[in-house]
Amino acid sequence: MIRTLLSEVKEYKGASVATPLFMILEVLMEMMIPFLMASIIDDGVNAGDIGHIYKVGGIMVIAAAIGLLAGMAGGRYGAKASAGFAKNLRETMFNHIQTFSFANIDKYSTAGLVTRLTTDVTNVQNAYQMTLRMFTRAPASLLCAMIMAFRINGKLSGVYLVAVVILGVLLALIMSHATRYFQQAFPKYDDMNASVQENVSAIRVVKAYVREEQETDKFKKASENIYRIFMKAEGNLVYNAPLMQITVYSCILLISWIGAKMIVASELTTGELMSLLAYCMNILMSLMMLSMVFVMISMSMASIRRISEVLKESSDIKNPKEPVYEVADGSIEFRQVDFAYRKDSESPVLKDINLKIGSGEVVGIIGGTGSAKTSLVNLISRLYDVTGGAVYVGGRDVREYDMETLRNQVSVVLQNNVLFSGTILENLRWGSREATEEECKEACRQACADEFIQRFPDGYETHIEQGGSNVSGGQRQRLCIARALLKKPKILILDDSTSAVDTATDAKIRKAFREEIPDTTKLIIAQRIGSVKDADRIIVMDEGCVDGFGTHEELLRENAIYREVYESQTSGGGDFDEKAGD
Fold first, then answer.
1. Which of 232, 274, 282 is nearest to 256 (CA)?
2. How far apart are CA 234 and CA 175, in angstroms?
3. How far apart are CA 82 and CA 126, in angstroms?
4. Is the pLDDT of residue 575 over 60?
5. Is the pTM of this model over 0.90?
6. How many Cβ atoms sit within 10 Å of the Cβ of residue 490?
7. Helix 154-201 vs helix 121-152: angle between axes, to the nearest 10 degrees?
8. CA–CA distance from 448 to each of 21, 477, 491 (Å)?
9. What is the secondary structure of 123-160 as a DSSP string?
10. Dist CA 485 CA 34 (whole Å)
């Protein structure tokens, strides 16, 4: 798990190695100063040797300067290494998420993935920097101070050893309790981010239904959950400081009391006592730093596990070893297809689907809510893999194609239309990066989008807000259809993509399709009979099965479901502007 993350250090290995080296150099310089101070007191001040004071004082200044520069370099390289590590980690996670199939994405909430890319990576970044700097500095300082202290006086230094053991055990107990709470805290961030995301994306609905107070309460509860868990964790960590202070002052008192007796007995010099007291502070401060590092590491372990989950998640849809890079035509065939979103599901979403659609054919798909219309078309572009049988496009199993090739030839306008922040032209060129402005305009004319774009003051340079919030639902749908047409696909799938436009515009779009892209196979999922009745054939879906497949007239005679839907929609005289469309 940790090895997986450390592989992202990459080009920052040099900075990662330099940081602990500079920290060790800083510690060595710091450890020299108390020793040199003892020499100044004993061999300079007490002996009245001013030359020795100048000489050793100069060495102390040089050591302090080297230590300062080493500390600055360690800080600089540590920041570079940790920030670079976090950058690589975010990029790798984001790129890996792009390879996920819909089935993989379904395992994680959007808020959960955002938290992993932000809060969790930041925690790991901070832990990595503290590991490079403090986790190197603290043990080195502790070890050097212990060696120097025992070199001065082994008997008196035994006080440190006892204090270190007692303090180490107590700190370990405190942190083990705190770690459990930190592991509970970070998943709660997902809930809080989900609350924010849902509120902001649906702010118009929130305001329309005057639900601000309820949404505020929901966010408050999510925030308070995090607060309570962190308070419990910090409630354990709060004992760190008093324990450290008790240990430090106890050691100072014991060393001062025992050291004074030893000075009187001529077993210790005044300078050596001063050095021992300085080393005492170094040892105990090193322990405090170590405790902070362990706290940070314990906090980040939960984040490390969550990040590793994403990095180790393997897409269940992969390219074959020798993929096919050309789709012959837009023909589609379903052979005994079964499909379930989960492999362990007891009942499949699609059951024994057998269909054959010719290239260039216009096929309508109609059925009640939950009849698996969208699930059916998602298999064509291999957004999901079948659990039984096979789907063929252009005469070949979709699992034989290079995924990019297949998806470039199967253009899908999804049920939930999404536009991205940028100009209308930039959004249209998602369909084709190299599309000229004239090609974009032609696609918009076919999708009946040109008429409203021309009314915008900036025309095709009009800025679209994130999610297309500054255009209407019908306008958003038509822009998404135009974007799909720019791909010049062999198969075009419209998943209820004209539900927000009036029937007149819907009819214009269908007419443009017939005339402008006759060789493209067109699958039109719709709720309105009027949107599909002119199709070459119509699929009637019912509870994951094909209940009927034929022309409008055939289904009216032979299919009860289709006839019932038709009669319910036409008994009131049809759509108000249906005639205008025709």
1. 274
2. 10
3. 7
4. no
5. no
6. 24
7. 170
8. 66, 10, 20
9. HHHHHHHHHHHHHHHHHHHHHHHHHHHHHH-HHHHHHH
10. 77
Task: Pick the closest to residue 461 from 469, 453, 472 (CA basis).
Answer: 453
**Which pLDDT score is estimated for 577?**
40
Calculate the CA dihedral of residues 38, 41, 42, 43 and round it to 10 degrees.
100
Per-residue pLDDT of 123-150, as tens digits, reads 899 889 988 888 888 888 888 888 888 8
* Cβ-based neighbour number of residue 294 at 10 Å: 19
How many angstroms separate the CA atoms of 488 and 417, rounded? 19
Q: List C-alpha distances in Å: 468 to 97, 311, 460.
A: 23, 31, 14
Q: What is the mean pLDDT of the chain?
A: 84
Q: Which two tokens stand for residue 196?
A: 């924010």
Angle between helices 270-312 and 154-201 (to 10 degrees): 30
Q: What backbone phi and psi angles, to 5 degrees, belong to 495?
A: -90, 90
According to DSSP, the residues that pair with 540 across neighbouring strands are 366, 548
Look up residue 260 and give its amino acid.
Answer: A
Phi-psi sector, 345: left (phi>0), alpha (psi -120 to 50), beta: beta
Direct distance between the N- and C-terminal alpha carbons of the chain, in angstroms, rounded to an integer: 62
Angstrom distance (rounded) from CA 113 to CA 481: 29
Taking Cα atoms as reference points, which of 1, 287, 227, 239 lies closest to residue 124? 1
Place of tokens 């060129």: 429
Least confident of 42-51, 176-185, 352-361, 519-528: 176-185
Do 116 and 306 meet the contact criterion of CB atoms below 8 Å apart?
Answer: yes
Residues 6+ apart with CB under 8 A from 234: 178
Between residues 203 and 335, the one the model is more confident about: 335
Q: In the chain, how many H helices and how many E strands?
A: 21, 12
Instruction: Give the C-alpha distances (Å, rounded to integers) separating 105 from 97, 119, 373, 384, 484.
Output: 8, 19, 20, 11, 23
